[in-house]
Amino acid sequence: VKFNTAVLDVKAGKKSIIINEDDANEIGLELNERARLTVGGKSTVCITETTKTLVNQGTIAIYRDVAEALGIENGSSVDVAYEPSPKSVEFIRKKIIGDKLSANEINGIIGDLISNELSDLDIASFLFSVYYKGLDMEEIKNLTLAMLNSGEKLELNGFVVDKHSIGGVPGNKVSLLIIPTVASTDLYIPKTSSRAITSPSGTADTMSVLANVKFSLKEIKDIVEKTHGCIVWGGALNLAPADDMLIRVENPLRINPRGLMLASVMAKKLGVGAKIVALDMPVGRGTKVLDIADGEKLARDFVELGRSLGINVRAGLTYGGQPVGRAIGPALEAREAMAALINPESASMSLLSKSASLAGIILEASGISQQGQGYNVAMDILKSGKALLKMREIIEAQGGNPNIKPDDIPVGSYKHQVVAESDGYVTLVDNESIVQISRAAGTPSDKGAGIILYQKQGYKVKKGDVLFEIYAERSSRLSDAVNLASYSPPVLLEGMLLKSYPTE
Amino acid sequence: VKFNTAVLDVKAGKKSIIINEDDANEIGLELNERARLTVGGKSTVCITETTKTLVNQGTIAIYRDVAEALGIENGSSVDVAYEPSPKSVEFIRKKIIGDKLSANEINGIIGDLISNELSDLDIASFLFSVYYKGLDMEEIKNLTLAMLNSGEKLELNGFVVDKHSIGGVPGNKVSLLIIPTVASTDLYIPKTSSRAITSPSGTADTMSVLANVKFSLKEIKDIVEKTHGCIVWGGALNLAPADDMLIRVENPLRINPRGLMLASVMAKKLGVGAKIVALDMPVGRGTKVLDIADGEKLARDFVELGRSLGINVRAGLTYGGQPVGRAIGPALEAREAMAALINPESASMSLLSKSASLAGIILEASGISQQGQGYNVAMDILKSGKALLKMREIIEAQGGNPNIKPDDIPVGSYKHQVVAESDGYVTLVDNESIVQISRAAGTPSDKGAGIILYQKQGYKVKKGDVLFEIYAERSSRLSDAVNLASYSPPVLLEGMLLKSYPTE
After folding, report:
1. Within 13 A of B63's CA, how many CA atoms are on the CB side?
2. ipTM of the assembly?
3. Do residue B31 and residue A11 have CB atoms under 8 angstroms apart?
4. What's the whole-model pTM score?
5. What's the helix, strand, coil split of chain B in %, to 5?
6. Of B62, B60, B63, B75, which is closest to residue B22 (Cα–Cα)?
7. How far are the Cα atoms of A469, A487, B434 from residue A412, in angstroms, in the given order?
8. Among candidates B449, B444, B433, B442, which has minimal Cα distance to B199?
9. Which residue of B has its CA nearest to A28?
10. Looking at the partner chain, which of B54, B132, B255 has a beta carbon nearest the beta carbon of A10?
11. What does the pLDDT look like over B349-394, one tens digit per residue?
């Protein structure tokens, strides 16, 4: 049935049509059912919303994204028809009851996902079924290939390596040291990274303080062929759009099914043509890997999957029990990373040695260094200032100021210091509390917000020493964060009461 | 921060605000994050959608449901603020990893659900966690009470009994015989039923052909105190709104977690004050109960839950392998039910005896009949014409025509008969195929659409005998249904090829 369209300029994160209730009844469409919109050769499936008065009979309202997908404008004529659930909804049901999916079924799910045929609830069903029923190695490989084939590829004329962190540790700004270290050699390292999801700052957020991070694949190719490296936002690319679409629903659900994580990481690494991948797997309280045994199992799965896909994966379990370095939050982390490149001797050892370890894994695997010498070679590159020069090249190639000094980077002007109320040793630095406080302070959207940790686990402190300092760009955010820190302390001293009861 | 409101008249099935992107950035709200709207003493939580041009800075657009919840109109001023996830999202996370929930936690989840604080994805998370991790009997009891307390109650001056089918069998119009049978005695049976979800016709759809089914609790009280029975749509009541809100998300997910099913049924039975409940549990291909063992387990759980809540539950496993009676679809089923009441001797035995069995369970449990005599007493009421008279009273009390004859009920004027292509016995009547074909023909929204089965399992047919007949209100729907029936035959004869390969 033909309708006129009224385009609503709303970015709804989902595709809907809004149709007059009487029209909906006439064409047999109900609330939340699928409707297919067709115009010319283009077609898309939307979820039905109904209205009494927003649009009259004969007109449907559609959101901006839908109009763009159909290439139509306000007032265009479109055909609207009831659309049954796509075939892949049945495949998802198979996984819900625990059946193994064939390559065709996985391709069907990813194909429908990419064509926007699946609703958010369908996608959630797929995510939960994989979370609870799992995927075997063959399913994961097929999912990886389906995700890879859903997107475009970066093709570089060089030997490509990559680094990936499976995340979960605040302050993990190691990519800003690793990329220039590796890029100082003959290797290419086109690092695509994410923005913060649950953390105070993703690598892309931190780098965005120093340079642009949003580029096309063509631009990245130019940057990497010139400098051997880049640190860009992966979300603007089209490397594995199916994965991005799954992640959009996965994040609010806060589940991270292992099979999808493996496929997601490897699809993007295949997409940039990486032959060697160093995996940073932080282990410990508040990370995604609970203990060493769990980490070893995950590492073995990554290595096996990589082998079946032609990628040499080297996984490093790293200590993730407290933040890396001292700074948490985009601008504060960018300051710390630049300071570490400028003066490695004064840098936090946790930052410097973790960066050299992971860079070293890549250098050994690629034959740039001898076995057992990767760490030392990487440390030499860092301490010689070569990594700093390379980082300046990369910042410049990405449109930033290559000569930026740490102090040039603006941070929040609202600050609050928390001091030790007694002498003692630091027994715990609580990642989760740090994340909560940083986010209350405004990270990642307020780039200047965050935390500087002055004391870490095992440090001896005296009464009155500053334990940590909170930064915010807005006073209301600062007081939220300070308030949160008072009842969820991120730095605990030996002998300190965690809580006293009764609390009043 | 204060905003003007523009009310969009859209029934979106979800609560959103649409805010200018610049405003969203300024107040730190991101796409899909929660926003709290407050005006006067009223407050509600919405999901954030962003726009560049639909609204200017300083104005938000909200949907009709949200405006009604806040009691505001176009142009009113509201306060908008970022809202963190409610506490119950953490409780849901506990269930996701398989922890047991306390009464307080369950009350927290149901409370937030009722206050519209949970997004559809939060609700989906709860549903999947219960589907995969289950609820123990204590959790189910607490959930039942939380659901009960979320709603209003029907208070009748009489001894209340009820009947419930856990569904899954097409053509299951037994309530239209059971209710008048039981209501012919001293018992009260206020039957609230659902509209079709996945089936061709819910009891409320079938009854809506004969009378109104949408009443308030007050009106139902009047009807039942006058006639001892009613057959109304439960969705218009407010007996357990939390349950309705879960079901709204459960239906598109097509999962039916057992613990929720138990709580959902019992909350509604408690809500009408039932002391005795007869449970119809169809078992077999295409039903919700796979086999007898599964049915017995579920029956035991219902009985145990009922006991802990003061309800005498009597569960009857019934044969659900093929439709009950011959008619499928609202109008066709209403015709068949009225014909069976008018002339029980000619009625389909599967319909008559199933109805008498379930009514008999109630009559025995309540002491109206002696043990072992319930079926006979119920059959006497049916055959004596008392049930017919009672049904006419109920129809009249619900605003229908008490003297309606089966042939007065309009059915679809587009018909197609499918005949046997050979002699043979009917080996299978496929519920699932019948449901698909009926829905293709237009049920449940086209009341006159559906199927009449002329042959059922075990019947001997001759070449040319009519196997079944499809009814539709629209020719396009009829051809869809006929087409579907040709490659997914609902009535299979011994020796008949299910499919031939290759298909071309």
Report:
1. 21
2. 0.75
3. yes
4. 0.81
5. 45, 20, 35
6. B60
7. 11, 23, 66
8. B444
9. B445
10. B54
11. 989 999 999 999 999 999 999 999 999 999 999 999 999 999 999 9
